[in-house]
Amino acid sequence: MEAKDGSMGFDFEQIEPNLVRIKEKFDPKKENPIEIQRQGWQAILNHFKEYVEAESIK
After folding, report:
1. How does residue 55 score in pLDDT terms, banded at 50, 70 and 90?
2. What is the mean pLDDT of the chain?
3. What SS3 class is residue 13?
4. Contact (Cβ atoms closer than 8 angstroms) between residue 45 and residue 22
5. Angle at 39 between CA 51 and CA 33, to 5 degrees
6. Are 12 and 22 in contact (CB under 8 A)?
7. Any idea what DSSP says for residue 6?
């Protein structure tokens, strides 16, 4: 998954058939505090989790 402008992104990898584990690694930018960047990426993962769980119910 990448930002629309391609400036940052991360890859997904399947571990087990019945379990999805997402590991995120990012290189923080010097322009913004690391904690703000971490919170932003965590929010993306939280929304992705909600989406996947909602889709699995359908």
Report:
1. confident
2. 80
3. coil
4. yes
5. 150
6. yes
7. S
Token pair 């960047």: residue: 37
Q: Residues 24, 41: contact at Cβ < 8 Å?
A: yes
Question: Rounded CA gap, 54 and 58, in Å?
Answer: 7
Length of the chain counted residue by residue: 58
Provide the pLDDT for residue 47: 92
pTM for the full predicted model: 0.56
User: For residue range 2-27, what is the model confidence (pLDDT) as tens digits?
Assistant: 777 878 777 766 566 667 777 777 78
C-alpha to C-alpha distances, 24 to 48, 57, 58, nearest whole angstrom: 13, 25, 27
Region of 10 please: left (phi>0), alpha (psi -120 to 50) or beta. beta
